[in-house]
Design a protein that fits this description.
The strands form 3 sheets. This protein has a 7-stranded mixed β-sheet with strand order 4-10-9-8-7-5-6, sandwiched between helices. Helix 3 runs antiparallel to helix 11. The longest helix is centred in the C-terminal third of the chain and has 22 residues. It contains 14 helices and 15 strands. It is 39% helix and 18% strand. It has 391 residues and is an alpha/beta fold. The model has no long low-confidence stretch (mean pLDDT 97).
């Protein structure tokens, strides 16, 4: 089939919930991808911060192939070695003690919220303005995007209160004796790549410890090397009680988890939560391969180094064009804020051979594979300069 035939079939049969870019991707290698017409692109979105090893990494591919020949799925009634090995590796690399596997970031956040509420015995949860934690009913309740939640307002669970991201007084005023937890993205990806002041994170940490409020860090987008540390909250000294992860941990294979401190994890007993597919042998094998490559190729350090280089280049563009209002980010989660809507720029960059996207209306978001090189960043910045010069 050609591109238009595939698009026509989807238009006829799919439930329409996505505004797709009109290309059909076929294969990839590293940071490069090709569509079925043979056009080549540099992928600076990486499946929205998912394909951390790039495309077609040989060690990840081999691990999936080898495991698929043995076992793909078994019930959670039984133990399996790949997921068990990975659980120990991930827990040992963090300040948490227990883990529960899920399939997606929304599922991980759903489980984390349930755990916090059940453990604490309280019913209020705080969330931040401009947050994004998922599209299930529970995670929509802590997602500050009315365009997603408005049709369901009367059906959403109660007990969730919004606070201002970066404003410690807003958090102080919202905490009551019934507050179980606050859920926060250390770096807000969907909200426009926002990072609060260091004083806010320290103050939040101290306040929550004083008031007995659990801290849930949503590291779905910011975690696993994306922001120049294994997990972004480590950069800000947040001593979280629960952490959610997804996206990059499987390198493209659906994989997620929430982790908790020992006492908090004890809030769940058998039957309180469950899953059919999560923690499968195949998912475990994929995640172990990703972890191996992280260690062998020092991708956390590489992410920090390339992120600093990228931000320096984008900051130079900001000095050149007065319609760029900010260049910000952490590691390889980077945003370029414009004083106009950015959707057209995404289209123009596609024509130049680059995959990027726009979030929060006017923030160009870049989340390339963590294996990206300086010359690939240079190529993107050169193309951006060309596009901006033509406006």
């Amino acid at each position: 089939m050609n591109t238009q035939e595939i698009i026509d079939i989807e238009d006829k049969y799919f439930i329409n919930t996505f505004n797709r870019v009109p290309i059909v991707l076929d294969h990839g290698e590293g940071v490069k991808v090709w569509d079925i017409d043979g056009n080549e692109y540099l992928d600076f979105l990486a499946g929205i911060a998912v394909n951390c090893l790039g495309h077609n990494h040989p060690k990840l591919v081999k691990a999936i192939q080898d495991q698929a020949e043995k076992l793909i799925h078994i019930s959670s009634i039984y133990y399996n070695e790949p997921a068990t090995v990975y659980a120990k590796r991930l827990v040992d690399a963090t300040n948490f003690d227990r883990i529960f596997f899920a399939n997606s970031g929304a599922e991980a956040n759903e489980g984390a919220l349930k755990l916090a509420i059940k453990y604490s015995g309280k019913h209020e949860v705080l969330f931040c303005g401009d947050s994004f934690h998922g599209r299930t009913f529970l995670t929509l309740s802590v997602t500050d995007h009315p365009e997603y939640s408005a049709p369901y307002t009367e059906n959403l669970p109660r007990g969730f209160k919004k606070v201002e991201f970066g404003n410690l007084n807003s958090v102080k005023e919202a905490i009551t004796e019934n507050t179980a937890a606050i859920i926060i993205e250390p770096v807000q990806g969907e909200g426009g790549v926002h990072i609060a002041d260091a004083e806010f994170y320290k103050g939040l940490n101290d306040l929550c410890k004083e008031k007995g409020v659990l801290i849930i860090v949503d590291e779905v987008q910011s975690g696993f090397g994306r922001c120049g540390a294994l997990f972004a909250h480590e950069l800000f000294g947040i001593d979280a009680d629960i952490m959610t992860v997804a996206k990059g941990i499987g390198g493209g294979f659906p994989m997620a988890a929430f982790l908790a401190k020992e006492d908090v994890a004890g809030g769940f007993v058998p039957g309180d939560h469950g899953t059919t597919f999560a923690g499968s042998p195949l998912a475990g094998a994929a995640a172990n391969a990703v972890f191996d490559v992280f260690e062998e190729e020092k991708l956390v350090e590489h992410s920090k180094e390339m992120g600093e280089y990228f931000l320096e280049k984008l900051s130079a563009l900001k000095e050149k064009y007065d319609f760029i209002t900010d260049a910000r980010g952490s590691g390889l989660l980077v945003g370029l804020e414009l004083n106009f809507e950015g959707a057209d720029i995404v289209g123009k960059m596609l024509e130049e051979g680059f995959l990027i996207n726009c979030t929060a209306g006017n923030v160009l978001r870049f989340a390339p594979p963590l294996v990206v090189k300086e010359e690939e960043i240079d190529a993107l910045v050169e193309a951006l300069d060309k596009v901006f010069a033509s406006l």
